[in-house]
Amino acid sequence: MIKFIKKFRKDEEGAVTVDWVVLTAAVVGLGVAGVSTVSGGVNGLASKIVTGVDSADNVGAGTK
Fold first, then answer.
1. Residues 8, 16 contacting (CB under 8 angstroms)
2. pLDDT, tens digit, for every residue of 6-64?
3. For residue 12, with 0-12 CB atoms within 10 Å meaning exposed, 13-18 middle and 19 or more buried, which class applies?
4. pTM listed for this prediction
5. Residue 16, exposed/middle/buried by CB under 10 A (0-12, 13-18, 19+)?
6. Which residues lie below 8 Å from residue 16, measured CB to CB, with a gap of 6+?
């Protein structure tokens, strides 16, 4: 696979350049899709953590 990528990168024909742009766009698109999918769950979890910390009874924390 590494050999293929090195050969692919060295090839300077126009069609290969178009393929490289399409491949890069696909990778970026998958990254954006992954981040947008996970961000909703992260925001919800962060809200639950804030609520839990705010409502915790920490009066005696750290004392013996």
1. yes
2. 887 777 677 777 888 999 999 999 999 999 888 888 888 988 898 888 887 665 565 55
3. exposed
4. 0.50
5. middle
6. 8
